[in-house]
## 1
Amino acid sequence: MANPSEIFGANVFDDRLMQERLPKETYRALQRTREEGRSLDPAVAGVVANAMKDWALEKGATHYTHWFQPMTGVTAEKHDSFIAPRKDGTVLLEFSGKELVRGETDASSFPSGGIRSTFEARGYTAWDPTSYAFIKEGVLCIPTAYCSYGGQALDKKTPLLRSMQALNKQALRILRLFGNDDVVRVYATVGAEQEYFLVDKDMYKKRPDLVVTGRTLFGAKPPKGQELDDHFFGVIKPRVQAYMKDLNEELWKLGILAKTEHNEAAPAQHEMAPIFSTVNIAADHNQLTMDVMKRVADRHNLVCLLHEKPFAGVNGSGKHNNYALSTNTGLNLLEPGDTPQQNAQFLLFLAAIIASVDDYQDLLRVVVAHAGNDHRLGANEAPPAIMSIFLGDELNAIIESVVNSSKYETHAPDQMRLGVHILPKFPKDSTDRNRTSPFAFTGNKFEFRSLGSNQSISGPNVVLNTIIADTLMHMADELEAASDFTSAADALIRRTLREHMRIIFNGNGYDQSWREEAARRGLLNLPTTVDALPYYIHQKNLDLFERQKVFTAQEVHSRYEVKLEKYVKVIDIEALSMVDMARQLILPAALRYSKDVAKEAEAKLKLGFDAGLKLERSLLGTLDEQMTKLYEGTFALEKAVEDTRSIEDMLEKAKFTRDRILPVMEEIRKAGDILETVVGKEYWPMPTYQELLMSV
Ligand code: ADP
Ligand code: MG
């Protein structure tokens, strides 16, 4: 086992290296950009580029790339070598400040949602000095933002950086009001817990659905699926252990703080949690983590499945976005703290987040809406599609006493009472675990649990930063104008909490009764991606993004289009894969089996052994019935896909996809899964759920 402290950050051009290799002046200038968000002096870039190149060459890298995050949700890179020709025919190795700072790329292969007209096919990448450069597979990777010639964001990093600026600005205003003059920067911190499945590669290859779509389109439930929980929980198998060890080392080398690893609820499901960092770094690191997870799996003859729902009837995979607000002085603004003054500040930030989540339930739902995630949210799985906040008993009691201006009674005798100015000591770690809540307070941070395992965490954090910035802005406007800050703050906290109590729900989110209760409270319930996406472009949301300078209306529209299109494409591909599997694998297998059953019946007849051939008739009847459903279903599905393609309007297309394609797929699957349980095992053309889930 490599010593983590020796390998940690080995492939990262990090702070230690910069300090070592950059002239003091350069280092300081860069530091000011990184920590205080100041813009970078171009002269500095040349020096940094040269130092990066020297280091990269020492590490054996020959190429560099602007590593960016287009709207596909996966990362992109285009490699350039460091080689530059000399007059004498030899080459020299070069990397200029200009090459570090700006890159040009052919943007036509990335989605733009109509932003980039065809004559302007170029996109530009711009260095993000707040995220460290790193070496991956012999290539120096420069984290960059990606935009069009006109400066419109075409990626997931640009809006995240913009939203960080918005949040910083407004949070600082609030902190000043509370007398915190030493703080110069506030940022969101995020720890993204990543769930995944591991399956054996040889088995995986025999499943075209997994290979093409990342999820199984057929597969009868194993006799004991999820119930095997206890059996699997706790014990990490040797092959998985070896994978995790390798994964950790690779992540550490990239400076990723991989911390905990454990088995998850479902068999073959696991989780990796990093130590939290600034949201921008957390987003880059999560993209890298997903990438490394897949590559390391390959080395172990495994496949890492990041799809939100690889197996029907088995727990899906999510990503828990742990979110808090931190100052550059190291203070967590969501830490309840012990002094009344801090508590008032804490309560104000808490109230701001509660109000933001309530006011923008729709946006929080939009940013986790994907075809894959629809199998979790809105289905009978955690968390539900309805946004709500879980606070836990203790904090809930405190909030209620603030709202009702009543005494706060705790079970602990040594707690202070809650007056308006005399706020209580908050008992630490008093939050209970609630696995069903989409947005839970967990001691000193919120955990947004609705994210799909496969998605970039940028979108959700852009929205969190933006909606919180906006609420803080309104609060700061009000408080700055008040003559008596303390009483104005108290009144504002109380009023805000009172107005937004409906979003707080501490019960079981799976219950049907919650759906009814949520409807009574007027909370949104948007079970599918198609229900959610139109909210993206509602005027109130366009206004929000423009007010906070995070997106122009045009940029939001483009994202809306990209998301709709992706939804349609994903299901289109699934549908056609299903047709192929049904006709080319399942049907032939079922026919072979039928033939053998028929032969057997014939043999019996020859032996004069008739007795009505009850078994054979019944079996053949079932086979025939399901094969017919399956076969006819494939034509209905092809027709539905064809019909969808002819629809022009993207939203209509998406609706049609959901309402006409998905139900046919479900019918076909039913027939296929019945066949799987009837057809003899040695006839079945692909590994079953049981085999896949037990394969490692
Ligand atoms: P759990 O008990 O759910 O495992 P942990 O305390 O281990 O909770 O944290 C889970 C995740 O939350 C980790 O990724 C951790 O780094 C992250 N986390 C902890 N504190 C913060 C914070 N202040 N801001 C953002 N994420 C945090
Ligand atoms: Mg968690």
## 2
Amino acid sequence: MPRETKRILMTGAAGQIGSELAQALRKKHGRDNVLVTDLVRPPAALAEAGPFELLDITDRSALDGLIAKFGVDTVYHLAALLSATGEKNPQKAWDVNMNGLYNVLETSRARGLARVFSPSSIAVFGPATPRENTPQDTILDPRTMYGVTKVAGELLCDYYVRKYGLDVRGCRYPGIISHMTLPGGGTTDYAVAIYYEAVKRGRYICFLREDTRLPMMYIPDCLKCTLDLMEADFGRLNHHANFNVTAMSFTAGEIAAEIRKHIPSFECRYEPDSRQAIADSWPASIDDSTARAEWDWKPDYDLAAMTVDMLAALKKRQAAGTLGP
Ligand code: NAD
Ligand code: AKB
């Protein structure tokens, strides 16, 4: 049994998920027990609310130094380049996503860490994968460099579990929707931007077709999913770093219609760009029954509940003057 988690290092803490997961981990484990790192400095509210270090994840000796200095026993590895950014620079996506993960796993193995979290994505799937209710164990044929790194990453994590007994866990997040930190260059980013633009301007030009259906999840469920998986009984897990998880699926037209229930004058136009081909290669809905069976995963938010919460949070930020122009 691994000893109780006390000292955590997080990579990619300035990002959409990392910035909120860092706060949740500090709340749970104590602010001084969570060292947050990123290539860039997060806003002061995060960087100054506990230990923070700049870290390029492709620099293994810098990572090793921080793990040793801070007495880390658990890593949450969030640093990555996402699908749309990755297609602009596939070589860099490979470098950051693969060498970054390899550095995390290798350092964790060598230093005898207790546990590692490394998220995967619905981007592991591709055109030959069943699109509806995509099964847990199925064809993985991604068409993006991001997806290629996520498939290879899942396999690498499993290798470290089997070969070295390193406890590595991860799930295939769907598109994550949140109101604190903007997403960093993915195909599902439209489902965040649509809420911001609805509140700020009352209109939005969507870069996907109106009928594009994708699996999604609201950030509170993403945090719950991550924390619950990391606390699950290892003995119950037959999978490790590749759990399908989902909360809802909707089309771009359906999210716009849901927003219109609260902002009747909201207008949405659809002008698909190169991200449409990526979205078309991904599942429309996900079967997450394995996660439900192996560690009791269950989401709380559907599209209606998320929309109420997102609009209220963004209107509050707008009133406080923190939503931007
Ligand atoms: P993000 O793009 O918002 O944040 C990624 C962070 O990584 C950024 O703060 C960036 O500065 C940092 N980073 C980039 N290169 C780095 C480097 N060389 N060294 C250190 N840090 C570096 O991403 P996110 O949405 O928060 O995603 C976090 C993880 O979750 C990623 O592994 C991503 O693939 C996965 N994921 C996210 C989603 C989603 O919808 N947000 C969905 C599926 C999977
Ligand atoms: C992206 O669109 O690239 C991410 C993801 C689903 O992995 N949000």
